[in-house]
Amino acid sequence: MTVFKIPVSVLVILYSSDADVLLLERADHPGFWQSVTGSLDDENEPLVDAACREVFEETGLAIASADMQDWGFSQNYEIFAHWRHRYAPGVTENTEHVFSSRIPVKAQCAFPPASICVGNGWALRMRQRLVFLGPTPRPFASSVGVSSLAKGCGGIEASAAWPTSGPAGMNRPAPLVVRRPEGLYCPQGDFFIDPWRPVDRAVITHGHADHARPGHGHALCSMRGLPVLRARLGEAQSFQGLGFGQRLRLQDVWVSLHPASHVLGASQVLIESASADGHGSERWLVSGDYRVQNDPSCDAFEPVKADVFISETTFGLPIYRWPNVADEVALLLDWWQTCRDEGRAAVLYTYALGKAQRLLIALLRLAPLPGTLFVHPSVARMNEAYREAGIALPELPTPPAMLSPGAMVLAPMAVQGSGWMQRQKPALAEAMVSGWMLVRGHRRRHAGVRGFVISDHADWPGLLWAIDQTQASRVVLTHGQTSSMARYLKDQGRDVDTLETEFDAQAADV
Q1: Which end of the chain is more exposed for a tag (fewer CB within 10 A), N or C?
Q2: What is the pLDDT of residues 231-243, one digit of tens each?
Q3: Residue 29: φ, ψ to 5°
């Protein structure tokens, strides 16, 4: 079945606050220039989504739909005869819709000076620094449609090219990671990292739901994380395990996984551009989620050197400085004992994967406990996966219909207010273990719930330490408190950018 191009396209004018406009010189016709343009992928694709997608595909710049301005203007133009075979029979005209978006002034990728003309010959000189991820990309091609503005420059359907030179003529290689609608993508290896939509090949850093999503053709994860991911995503998902530190060649890059110490099997993903002798010439490190406090529930965090470090910043504010874990566990035990003395049972809210197992190991080391310890079925499933991976955890019972005074159950926050909880008499004492409980505002939102500050993410000092350990010349900050961390690092003289993703920073540490 022949798939025809849709005769509806978008044109996107990208400009800076200094009124510099980005045009792309055609690779097949030097001296011919055009804006970002392209056709709809399907008839149901919203125009603004097409505009954002085309900008990303042509330039690597990730622009949110809210930052894309619809001019409410369109025009029809005749499709050149030599391109009409791409369209359905009888289609001779295309409708083009115009959008624009302002590029941040302090973006980091430098374009070389180049005289350009727009429309009737208005001349500008490209001098604005623009960026998506990392160094300026080398030339890459993608199909674009005829641009109404570019037609004034003689533009026709062509391949758009990016320059390879950075500031002062310095050549820079193509980025090893870019953002696509499906997630973070490595073009040289043709795989995604923690994609939020189904893809053919995915590298999954860990088992939390915002990073491990179902439906991929093939998935690569750490060998340590295999039992966890199978428990989360099911046997229908095809997995390949890779030992920590083991290098795997994927097309033009080497990939290796290194412990992130977030949950069992959590990995940092190191991507190295492959040279002829098999050694990497540039190194990009994608952190996933990580912490730098070590404990027996998972592998210790491994510092990894890289040229570019893409780091999470869930707790990227100076107020987040974790107290001693042993002290928090002691406070938790005191609270549990108080509940028993008052003749009450208790529920401790914790994430079913990672935090629960960490707490269990810490609590069971302090036996005898104030009462019987139960685990929610979702925690029990993850405990089984941990045991399969070699982590020593006892089999603990799931809670009965009614808890006896002095008992405590580890459960996810989803059980709060459930029918089972409402049937408990007297009412259960409630507590939560989370890094968010360090902040008074979060404690107020959970009025009546005791808070203990234990997190499976790095705090402010931990993030800074991990970034320093990479010795990266460039840092890209993702989900979390990106703006505050970026300001601080820039004040320290670092080359920093931020990246919007679909990872849920708060849900990851409930």
Answers
A1: N
A2: 999 988 889 999 9
A3: -135, 75
- Residue in 211, 214, 213, 283 with CA at minimum distance from that of residue 247: 283
Enter the tokens of residue 202: 């995915």
* Pairwise CA distance, residues 38 & 5, whole Å: 10
Rg (CA), the chain: 26
CA pair distance 484, 468, nearest whole angstrom = 17
Closest CA to 191 of 224, 221, 229, 226: 221
- Report the DSSP pairing between strands 474-480 and 239-242: unpaired
3-class DSSP assignment, residue 481 = coil
Closest by Cα among 220, 187, 192, 191 to 206 = 220
Give the chain's length: 510
The 10s digit of each residue's pLDDT in 394-450 is: 999 999 999 999 999 999 999 999 999 999 999 999 999 999 999 877 777 777 899
Query: Nearest CA to 96 among 124, 71, 118, 77?
Result: 77
* Closest by CA position to 144, among listed 3, 52, 9, 28: 9
Quote the tokens at residue 251: 């097309």
* Cα 416 to Cα 227: distance, rounded to the nearest angstrom: 28
Contact between residue 126 and residue 22 where contact means Cβ atoms under 8 Å apart: yes
Single-letter amino acid, residue 366 = L
Would you say 261 and 292 are in contact if contact means Cβ atoms under 8 Å apart?
A: yes
Strand partners, 185: 178, 192
Whether residue 295 has pLDDT greater than 50: yes
Secondary structure of residue 62 in the 3-state scheme? coil
Reading the block at residue 90, the tokens are 């009888």
Of the candidates 415, 420, 431, the one whose C-alpha atom is nearest the C-alpha of residue 338 is: 431
Distances (CA, A) of 41 to 4, 6, 51, 216: 10, 7, 11, 21
Q: Return the C-alpha torsion angle 482, 488, 490, 492, nearest 10.
A: -150
Q: Indicate the pairing of strand 449-452 with strand 191-193.
A: unpaired
Residue listed under structure tokens 């601080």: 488
